[in-house]
Amino acid sequence: MKIHREGVKTLLVLFVVLGLLNTSIYLWANLDVIWVATIGVLSLGFYLFILQFFRNPAIKVEMGDKSILAPADGKVVVIEKTTEDEYFRGKEKMQVSIFMSPLNVHVNRNPVTGLIKYFKYHPGKYLVAWHPKSSTENERTTLVYEVHKGVEILVRQIAGAVARRIKWYVEENQSVIQGKEFGFIKFGSRVDIFLPLDAEIKVEQGQITKGGRTVIAELAK
User: What local confidence, expressed as pLDDT, does residue 33 receive?
Assistant: First the structure.
């Protein structure tokens, strides 16, 4: 288990702040020992909570030409036929959405091997991640992967009410490998995947996914 690079600065600053706070309480606050100890335990618990959020476990990716892997750890909250207007210009697609709670690993992984054909960052609001308008009004990024034979897969990182920073490590015309990191979202969020209508969905609503390991769909071609 490693700590993700996005957490190094946050964890260092938090360690210093909590250390100074607890030292000040111990030296100058006129509190009983039990209260000093309680504050120390709560501080440690809070630090460990933030620490686990930035965990980055090593995983084994089983790659497949037709397999669409989950781009994130989380829970499937949407499986539906819908239209996508930003890139596919109103064409019907099959949408699968994964909600990431603060307890999930927040590394985002490429669902396929292919070429990043389109990328765009959108500043926006911070509605709760399960809000129907979060995918069009919240801060978000849109990535389109061109897979074999011209098949295209769209993935959208969406910030939530708590997640207020989206990070990405890819750009247009970059070749990427299935299961490798493409981004990170801090503190709870959602990822939408738009697939061809003939893709065979392999997950159910409410199912727990593991980024880079759970097969969410199989391409027909």
Answer: 87
